[in-house]
Amino acid sequence: MEPVVRIASRTVVLPADNVDTDQIIPARFLTGTRTDGLGDSLFADWRRDGAGELRPDFPLNRPEAQGARILVAGANFGCGSSREHAPWALTDYGFAAVVSPSIADIFKGNAVRNGLVPVEIAPSAHRELLARPGTEIVIDVEAGTVSLPDGGSARFELPPFARRCLLTGRGPLDFLLEREPAILRYEQGHDDVAAAR
Amino acid sequence: MTAESPRTLFDKIWDAHEAVPAGPDHPAVIYVDTHLIHEVTSPQAFALLRERGLRVRRPDRTWATVDHSIPTRFVEGRPAFLNRATRNQVETLERNCEEHGIPLYRMGDPGQGIVHVIGPELGLTQPGRTIVCGDSHTSTHGAFGAWAFGIGTTEVAQVLATQCLLQERPRTLGIEISGRLGAGVSAKDLILGVIRRFGVAAGRGHVIEYRGAAVRALDMEARLTLCNMSIEAGARAGLIAPDETTFEYLEGKEHVPSGDGFADLVARWSRLPTDEDAAFDRLLSFDAGSLEPMVTWGTNPGMSCGISEAVPAPADAGERAALDYMGIEAGRPLLGRPADVVFIGSCTNARISDLRAAARVLAGRRTNPATQLLVVPGSAKVRRQAEAEGLDEVFRSAGAEWRAPGCSMCIAMNGDRLSPKELAVSTSNRNFEGRQGPGGRTVLASPVTAAASALAGAVADPRPFLQD
């Protein structure tokens, strides 16, 4: 995982609320055993029609959206299935951050562990971004700020550990592996855990 | 011991599983008692282990099954895999389990089934445990008073390697459910009613505890249905305090000790329920008595109404788009809307009690010839039990297809799926766009409502079929 410190990009706006992970990547694309190559299946049934042709009116397909790395989405983004294929598809497509008034719990954690920045901002700031698709903004992960089209900025919170994961590119697995002695002590101190061994 | 401050059920489980408490710069390290894995969300986790040169720390705390992408049909005695990719996922899991010494319930094995159906059946799901799986419906196991939640694949790798996860402490949400469910109204209708009332994001950041007389009155399988759809209310986990109903269900299960061992466990489990004065971060209340059978009309599980109620006028652009996708008009009930397919299955509603309820509606009747009825038992054990009771004959005689256990048309990865614009009345948990096949339309309902709809060939009220 590469460290993510600052993202400067145009936005793509997908205003619908409650975008579920079945929309982000439909289940029929989950039959692989790898984490890469899923970008083409991102929003597959919204991006393409029944014949597989790109729908020109879908926000991601518009010419001005090409190369944009920040997705501005509606509330409760990423609800539903726990499939990590959702952030895998978003990052493989080229997105580095999702900005929403609220992001679903499992998706948020999955995003952080894949270097995709989950940015939850106040509804008023979100409305500004919704109203100005394609605007150039800067997400500062260290400061926890998003620049807004009117020149102001909005704050977003991340748990300190999640922020550090993003900034350093080091995930929780390393942290847990370093806690092996404590984990072993826990196991030894819990009869039922030890007994199962 | 000095008097402790009152705690909720969730608080007690959390406290007992902190291998490392939270620090200023890291969340708590939570020990996982039981890890369930399946073929779709585990291959990349094993690949990560291999890449890092890591082993599975506790194969004795890990159980695997195949369910998501496996076929439910056999051709000439061989499973009819959709394609090479789905077969490869199953074979990959077989190799990974063999390499790491993880017990695996393969297709055709008497213990195989949907991961959230077999956990309770085998007695792996026990009160007070932490249970995780790379599947959001892991919330199901909370019915036993376990803290059970869905995780991503990177987390699957973490649990495989360390048996632990880093967790930010969730807030607690008590949902007090009063009243009694009416005839023909089930736990499925109850959870759909709760989600409609409080919304699909109500539980975000929270663990739900379902409480109250209406919850106590539910049997274990109904409680599993209720907790199953906690994730559809936005919560990673939903719990119910263990009680006599729980203990009775668990006694004699394969992985539950017997005799004195069981008595000791019951004594421990009995201390788990939320203390009288414990505070929840949030409390909501709901009256189950006013519910009728529920059906969804839109593209998320909060978009539902009572079976005799008119579909509400859209409140926003999202609801308008949902009605448009579903081809449904607001202002009149869904009753009578033709159904191409009826699906009875999934981790929500494919247990023996669900099949019995559906069979009661279907017994001695024939489904509408225009409607395909698919009955997919949740596990091999459910299938055997149903066959022992003659339910398979009831289904077949009614015109249904009786399949092998798996997730099937709930997630539509295995070829069991809708064609564009087809409408299914489904006992599954998600009515998202395309969930049951690209362009397919899903009406979520209970097993009896689904069965009645198969007979009518259209969305139907089950209650007339339930009068003796």
In short:
Chain A has helices at residues 21-24, 44-47, 85-93, 105-112, 123-131, 160-168, 172-178, 180-189, 191-196; strands at 6-14, 70-73, 97-100, 117-120, 136-140, 145-147, 153-155.
Describe this structure in words.
The complex is a heterodimer of chains A (197) and B (468). Chain A contains 9 helices and 7 strands, in the order E-H-H-E-H-E-H-E-H-E-E-E-H-H-H-H. Chain A has 197 residues and is an alpha/beta fold. In chain A, strands 4-3-2-1-5-6-7 form a 7-stranded mixed sheet. The longest helix of chain A is centred in the last third of the chain and has 10 residues, at 180-189. Chain B is 31% helix and 17% strand. The model of chain B has no long low-confidence stretch (mean pLDDT 97). In chain B, strand 11, helix 6 and strand 12 (206-211) form a beta-alpha-beta unit. Chain B has a 5-stranded parallel sheet with strand order 7-4-3-8-9. Chain B has a 5-stranded parallel sheet with strand order 19-18-17-20-21. Chain B has helices spanning 9-16, 43-52, 84-100, 115-122, 153-162, 187-198, 213-216, 220-228, 244-250, 260-269, 317-326, 352-362, 380-388, 391-398, 447-456; strands at residues 18-20, 28-31, 34-37, 62-65, 74-75, 78-79, 104-105, 130-133, 147-150, 164-167, 171-178, 206-211, 237-239, 282-287, 294-296, 304-306, 341-344, 372-375, 401-402, 423-426, 441-444. Chain B is globular. The chains are: A alpha/beta (197), B alpha/beta (468). Chains A and B meet through helix 4, helix 6, helix 7 and helix 8 of A and helix 2, helix 3, helix 5, strand 10 and helix 11 of B.
Layout of helices and strands:
The complex is a heterodimer of chains A (197) and B (468).
Chain A: E1 6-14, H1 21-24, H2 44-47, E2 70-73, H3 85-93, E3 97-100, H4 105-112, E4 117-120, H5 123-131, E5 136-140, E6 145-147, E7 153-155, H6 160-168, H7 172-178, H8 180-189, H9 191-196
Parallel strand pairs in A: 1-2, 2-3, 3-4
Antiparallel strand pairs in A: 1-5, 5-6, 6-7
Chain B: H1 9-16, E1 18-20, E2 28-31, E3 34-37, H2 43-52, E4 62-65, E5 74-75, E6 78-79, H3 84-100, E7 104-105, H4 115-122, E8 130-133, E9 147-150, H5 153-162, E10 164-167, E11 171-178, H6 187-198, E12 206-211, H7 213-216, H8 220-228, E13 237-239, H9 244-250, H10 260-269, E14 282-287, E15 294-296, E16 304-306, H11 317-326, E17 341-344, H12 352-362, E18 372-375, H13 380-388, H14 391-398, E19 401-402, E20 423-426, E21 441-444, H15 447-456
Parallel strand pairs in B: 3-4, 3-8, 4-7, 8-9, 11-12, 11-14, 12-13, 17-18, 17-20, 18-19, 20-21
Antiparallel strand pairs in B: 1-2, 2-10, 5-6, 15-16
Helix pairs in contact in B: 2-5, 6-8, 12-14, 12-15
